[in-house]
Amino acid sequence: MFKIFSAKVKHNEIRIDAVAVRDDLRGLSIGTAMLKYFFDFARTEGFEKTYLEVVDTNPRAKKLYERLGFVRKKTNRFYFLTAGAGFSSQDIMYRQL
Predict the structure, then answer these.
(1) Partners of residue 46 on adjacent β-strands
(2) Which of 28, 2, 1, 7 is nearest to 95 (CA)?
């Protein structure tokens, strides 16, 4: 359902759909290492930009993405989904590769 609010992927862009690290392993730079590996891979495959969405209830992820160079380009607000989904907005964030 949320895909209708996602940005459209352009030919030189690659979208990160999900990044997950087990709770007991967070804070060990695993997410950072995975994303850096992804950036290297995407560059060698000819992509110039990557983007992702992060919900407002995940500030740790947003902080990680900002630290790695992602910039918020747009915020989608989902007022009608707050109770059911547990969040009320998502930021679409981009990063040059």
Answers:
(1) none
(2) 7
| Domain parsing of the chain, residue ranges | 11-96
Average predicted confidence (pLDDT) for the chain = 88
Q: Phi and psi at residue 79, in whole multiples of 5°?
A: -55, -40
Of 24, 19, 51, nearest to 35 (Cα)?
Answer: 19
First-residue to last-residue Cα distance in the chain: 28
78 CA to centre of own chain: 17
Q: Which of 90, 55, 52, 46 lies closest to 69 in space, CA to CA?
A: 52
Q: Does the 11-96 domain belong in CATH 3.30.930.10?
A: no
pLDDT at 96 over 90: yes
**Residue pointed to by tokens 């992702």:** 52
pTM confidence score: 0.83
